[in-house]
Structure formats: C-alpha cells, structure tokens
Amino acid sequence: MSATAEADPKALVAEAEALAARLAGVREAVGRIIFGQDSVVEQTLITLLSGGHALLVGVPGLGKTRLVETLGTVLGLDAKRVQFTPDLMPADILGSEVLEEGEDGRRHFRFIPGPVFCQLLMADEINRASPRTQSALLQAMQEQRVAVAGVIHPVPTPFHVLATQNPIEQEGTYPLPEAQLDRFLLEVEVSYPDEAAERAMLLATTGAHNPRPHQALTAQELIAAQALIRRIPVAEGVLDAILKLVRNARPEESPLESVRRNLSWGPGPRAAQALMLATRARAVLDGRLSPSVDDVLALAEPVLRHRMALNFAARADGVRLPEVIDTLKGQVA
C-alpha cells in the first residue's frame, strides 16, 4: 500500500473498496468451478489474504484438489502439487544437491530446487508422509525459506501451503505434530454439498464442455492485498474479544471449569495473531472496512480447533472440541 493511503484514511477506504470489488470477481470465478462450498472458498481466500496456510480436512471426492488448482489459476500463482506418501523423502519436497563435473574436470555441487519453490503448494494427504518428511515444510511455512546443506534458499513470494487431510482413514497415516498444526492459519472443514449444489455440479461437470477457471488476480495484486489487510483498523472491542477467546482456551489459566477439565493444552499467541489477520480479511472480503466481534466468532472454530486437544478423560466421555469452542464463544458474544 502507498504511504499516502497509510496516512490518509480516505485513501485507505478507497483502496479497501477497490480490493473488495476485485475479490468479488475472484469469488465469482471460483464459484463457476467449485459448487456448494461457499464457506470453504471463503475461509481459504481468508487464509490467502492473511498470508497464511490452510489445512483442508474432508473425505475424498469433495473437490479439495480441484479447489487448490482453481485458486492457483484464478489468483495467477505458480502452483505445484506433491502427493504425500509413506516413502516420500524431504529431498522430494525441498530439492537436493547433485555432484556435477565441469568441462575443466572440476567437480562442484549444484542445487536442484524441489516443488516447494512455488507460490502455491498443494500438499495432498499430508498426514500420509512420515514425521521427518512432514517437518521438511516447517521452515518454509514459517520463514519463507529453506536450508539445504547449510545454504539458505528463499522461496518465491507470495508462498502458501494448502494441505489436505482425510479425517476418517487413519491406517498408514502419521498425525501432524502440534508444531506443524500451529503453522496453519485455519483448519478448513470440507463437508458434503447440499442437493441443489450437487445437482448443479453434475450438470456442469459431466457434459461435453467442462468449465475452466480464468485468472482474476495477479500474484503482485495478492501481495498488495495482503499488505492492505494488515492496515485495516481493529476496534478495541474486537481486540478484547480475540484476547478473551484465546486466553480462556488455555486450561492453565482459563476461568471456565469445562476448559480446565476437558483440555490438555490450548492455543498459543499465534492463534490470536491468526484471528487478528483473519477477521480483517473476512471483513474486506464481505465489503466491510472494519472487522466486528461477529467475524471473531465466525472464525473461532477454524482458528482454534487444530490448536487445542482434548484430554483422555474428555475423549472417553464423548466430549467434542466444537462443544468446548461454543462454550468459549458464549463468553465473548
């Protein structure tokens, strides 16, 4: 964003309104390809506008892969896909150094970049790879760079990881460690479409002509949008709601007896940072210039559910995380 817009509230409003109009075009372009997943599309776009990464959780066949491919085209990003399997190695993601011999007979190492060197990386079924391979993404997701053989290699900007995970098939999978889960801004739950959306999808995708996505934004425009999102003002009431929601979710210091009884650990400061950015992005995506407490409540579950864990007693009693999060939201509303 320009320095003038940062100093002039009117210029900030004008830029935010222009961005909202562009984002409406983005949603329309995605909506021509993805049917009945409005909430999923919204939360994924919120993640990208916030500069973060998303974990898409849903059973096979709900369009998770198609959504990532569509977003790559619509947003004008260099997108790559990695199918995570038990035999996948870190070098298959990051790249590796190979020994080459020059014309003069001298040998040297040359780095061959892996698929992580892109702008939008789809990590398909990320929990099928070993913890060693999963952790290969940690540095790239947090620092936008990777270290190979002691040499730092920056990844392109913007850089986003959209990972998918099957919630029902656990055989041959490795649960994501807490450190990796915390790197995801949102955990997006992908559910079945309603009947009307599924009917429209059948008619659109089984005919002679399959709809193809078209570009509605560029990578540089996305970077500018991410910078603008960080300039959107947040009211004290919204800030207080975010802090109360996150701090009350920590069993060590929560005033809620149900939280202390049912949770083994809660969200850290990164959850509050995620909520601050995501509420701003949701407001702009909806054409509003200031986030509200309603935005905080709407995003509480996708921000918190992968940053909290039930203890053994709570799982034995059939307690579910959404119930605990609803209790937390009730203290804020």
UniProtKB/TrEMBL annotation:
Stored Pfam families: AAA_3 (PF07726), AAA_lid_2 (PF17863)
Superkingdom, taxonomy of origin: Bacteria
Stretch forming the signal peptide: none
Domain ChlI/MoxR AAA lid, chain residue ranges per copy: 261-325
Sequence ranges assigned to domain ATPase AAA-3 in this UniProt record: 53-186
Protein name as it appears in the record: MoxR family ATPase
Organism: Craurococcus roseus
